[in-house]
Fold:
Amino acid sequence: MKVNIFDYYDENTENLLQSLKTAKLPRKSLFVHYNGRLPKDAMSPFTFFTGLKETNTQGLFFNRVAVPTFYDIIVGGANSARIQNGMRTVGLITFRSEGYRVVDNVTWFSKEDGDTVVRKDWYNISGDRYATTYFKDGEQYATRYFKDGQPVITENHRSGIIELRYQDKTYDFANITAFFVFFLQEAKINALDIVINSLSYPLFIAHTLHNEKTTLFWQEPLGDDVPGNMVAELENQTSFKQIIFSDESQLKFVSDRYPDTKVKLTYLSNIGEFARKTKYRHQAFVLTNSDDLRGLDEILTALPDLKVTVAAFTEMSKKLLEQGDKYPNLSLLPNFAPREVHLELEKADIYLDINAGGKVANVLRYAYQNHMIILTDQDVKAGKYKSLVYDGTNALIADLTALLSDKTVWDDKLRQMISQNGPVSTATNYRKLLR
Structure:
């Protein structure tokens, strides 16, 4: 069977699955860990042995968390809410990145010490409590996964041992790898052709299975050195058939250092990334938690035909409100609901990444998926997202003026942004390497 084995369902994995789907390369997706959400038809040993099903994607709304009588739940920002007993904080609700104020986990504090964590309850995208992590002296020591309210899997974080209660028997596994291999046996999955995107447990599993047809998609930064587990395969091919890089410079870096490796080294970009095509509208969007928007006055003055919308999940400062009164091409959305982000992004074709501080609610990822051209002031850039980066507002305004005046320039700049890690691949490129 052709399978994907991934550590977690994260952004890199989501991008890879979208590429494989676009290339029409069906594979069974298996996940070593479970963090409350899986793609359709995917499996994890934690969902297999607990029978957990994601029946919907509505989640548990924060005010539905069960708390004792007279306790209050108070929203403390865009990402969390506090559970209060009078003036004392007894718990912290952390929201999932998907949905609006949907619960990811609830941390409970000691009755004697409001800073000491004693327990953390985990909820999935359907709103079910699927696991609880227990703490002692500030450190986690065990996580239990439940079926019908009873613990089925216990992961000991100190020893690494996993205990499984299954079919009236109790099994002890020395580590996650052994647990996962048992899951493959019980699920009757014969993993012959494997795709992974991690040098951690997925690689350990491939080694344990003695699989020689493993493809590694490398989607992470490399730094100054090639990772040790990759070096081991490059020098003594055991499991890897090929390594596919998402950045051509990384491919060259590794190829130059290991010219005699028997592992095939090649490149593919993500494909199928965009939910829509640009409409070339002179409409820009900014989502911020700060009123420090680099060059906003200059942009609004230099480009009066550019309509800019600035949104924030909180109240806005006097500074921003005064800018809203001053510039007719600026619209402000204070107390903006997170669930409205996608709607606003669909109305714009330019994203101005000019706000200092943290980037809010994965907005840059969503902007990219909406085929928006993202213009970044280099002083506020944070993260690995693709954008056009400028040394100062004048340079940004110059390019913005040019692309607003000419769709050909717009297309060129958009292409430059998308292909900065290498040329855009096709479904045919994927099928040649993976069929």
